[in-house]
């Protein structure tokens, strides 16, 4: 039986793709010489929106999987659904990006052809800092999601036995990484850090559906209020010139944001609004795949332009609208291909 979509998860997806777009919008605007004040689009002083959104995406992935598979689980069905939910749309989007690159550059990308296998399995972004790859769309954490999907049956088994073990273990390991990182990569890209957010999302979803609903509701309200305080404190302190450790701040703000949206979603009772959020959230994966490519094709048209706050906001908003329209189109093309294959 297909489960209903969870409103707070879709709401987090939507806000997070707006945050990711805002961050990459600010980076692209500076890179391309657009004269605009994009500080707010980048983040809170030196705490940028991108890593916060990525952390929340990882939590959403863990929460959505445990929501679907906590009670009943088939290993074969799980891997089949994850494969079909991740790869065909990625391959279709990659094909369009690859053809566009070939049209503009009059050649295929350079690099060892064997490394194209990393693009086929959506791991090219994850390894692009260390070896030449054919990385074109998506982000590095798509590779982390692939690895977490592979590990989910193990994580689910442990979480169903005791839901606190893995979050505590991975949190402790993440703290160790802050002081000693033996891996040749940034801390946030390590499987340990990604797993910490992933299992935390699993834990929060399991608690949300706990039989002790009165305690859960009270705890969620308190956590959301504390989360709002965290945002105010981080913003106020950073504006004074004191800079938090970015990893500490990102963790606090990511978890705070997640808990705030969980609570806000409970206030949304209007059925039309709930349906709209679910509809928009359905296209978040396609949006995520396309947003980076689109920004660097659209924004060069504004290189050298000087923009006030209103025009900057409209430029950002136009990016969001265009990317979302393309995401809907990509999803529809994929759906049409699936329908045609099933008819044959």
Question: What's this, in brief?
Answer:
This protein is mainly α and 344 residues long.
Keywords:
344 residues; mainly alpha; two-stranded antiparallel sheet; 2 strands; 74% helix; globular
Structure description:
- The protein contains 14 helices and two strands.
- It has helices at residues 7-31, 39-42, 49-69, 75-105, 116-120, 124-127, 141-161, 165-179, 191-208, 213-239, 246-267, 271-282, 284-298, 309-343; strands at 43-44, 47-48.
- The longest helix is centred in the last third of the chain and has 35 residues, at 309-343.
- The two termini are 26 Å apart.
Give the DSSP E fraction (strand runs of 2 or more residues): under 5%
Fraction of residues in H or I helices: over 70%
How would you sum up the global shape?
globular
The gyration radius over C-alpha positions equals 21 Å
* Number of alpha- plus pi-helical segments: 14
**What oligomeric arrangement do these chains adopt?**
single chain
Order of strands across the widest beta sheet? 1-2
Outline the biggest β-sheet.
2 strands, antiparallel
Order of helices and strands: HHEEHHHHHHHHHHHH
> Ranges with pLDDT <50 over ≥5 residues?
none
What integer is the average pLDDT? 90
The assigned structural class equals mainly alpha
- The CA-CA distance between the termini, in Å, is 26 Å
Compute the number of strand runs: 2
């Amino acid at each position: 039986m297909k489960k209903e979509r969870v409103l707070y998860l879709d709401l987090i997806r939507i806000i997070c793709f707006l945050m990711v777009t805002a961050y990459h919008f600010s980076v692209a605007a500076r890179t391309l010489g657009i004269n605009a004040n994009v500080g707010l689009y980048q983040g809170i002083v030196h705490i940028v929106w991108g890593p916060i959104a990525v952390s929340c995406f990882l939590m959403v992935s863990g929460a959505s999987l445990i929501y679907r598979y906590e009670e009943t689980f088939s290993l074969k069905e799980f891997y089949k659904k994850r494969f079909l939910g991740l790869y065909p749309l990625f391959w279709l989007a990659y094909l369009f990006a690859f053809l566009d690159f070939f049209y503009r550059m009059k050649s295929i990308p350079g690099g060892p052809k064997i490394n194209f296998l990393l693009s086929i399995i959506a791991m090219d972004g994850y390894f692009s800092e260390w070896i030449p790859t054919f990385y074109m769309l998506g982000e590095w954490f798509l590779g982390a999601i692939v690895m977490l999907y592979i590990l989910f049956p193990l994580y689910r088994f442990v979480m169903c036995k005791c839901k606190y073990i893995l979050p505590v273990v991975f949190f402790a390991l993440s703290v160790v990484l802050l002081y000693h990182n033996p891996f040749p990569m940034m801390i946030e890209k390590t499987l340990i850090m990604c797993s910490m957010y992933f299992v935390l999302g699993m834990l929060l979803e399991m608690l949300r559906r706990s039989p002790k609903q009165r305690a859960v509701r009270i705890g969620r309200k308190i956590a959301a209020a504390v989360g709002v305080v965290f945002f105010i404190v981080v913003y106020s302190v950073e504006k004074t010139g004191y800079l938090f450790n970015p990893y500490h701040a990102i963790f606090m703000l990511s978890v705070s944001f997640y808990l705030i949206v969980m609570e806000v979603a409970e206030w949304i009772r209007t059925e039309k609004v709930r349906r709209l959020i679910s509809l928009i959230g359905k296209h978040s994966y396609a949006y995520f795949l396309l947003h980076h490519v689109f920004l660097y094709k659209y924004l060069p048209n504004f290189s050298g332009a000087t923009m006030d706050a209103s025009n900057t906001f409209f430029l950002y908003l136009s990016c969001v609208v265009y990317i979302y329209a393309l995401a809907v189109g990509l999803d529809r093309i994929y759906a049409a291909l699936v329908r045609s294959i099933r008819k044959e």
